[in-house]
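Before a colleague's protein record goes any further, I have to sign it off. Alongside the sequence sits a line of tokens, each denoting a local backbone shape. I want your independent view on whether this chain really folds as the tokens say. Where you disagree with what is written, explain briefly why. This is what I was given:
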Amino acid sequence: MKKVILLILPILFFSCEKDDLKSPVPLLEFISITPEIAKEYEDEIIITISYFDGDGDLGENDPNVKNLFLTDNRNNITYEFRIQQLSPDNSTITIEGNLDISLSSTGITDSSNTQTVTFDIYVVDRANHQSNIVTSNPITIIK
């Protein structure tokens, strides 16, 4: 009897996991942010996130549609970006990968010589499902 239970548990575990993999809501994970110290108005900031979308409708071909949002947590300014369409229309394939978000530069928002900043990131797919929000590690902006 114990052997049967031990055989059934992995099957149940993996079958539940497959159902989660088909979720229509995109899932994000923060990977990295560079540089750790950025010179004000000069250094480009690169944030890398991973994405997972169970029904493959992340991204958009229309250049006017914004679907990736990056909020500066110091002042709540949100930058809007477009992720290019990652799978064909009407497909329901699972897609996953990494995205690099490039912020050309940023400045210090108070009168100090250095300032720490984090960013919140989320995406919205073509069915208007909003992903979870991930927060970057902090970086320091210097004059």
Q: What stands out?
A: The first strand starts at residue 27 and ends at 34.
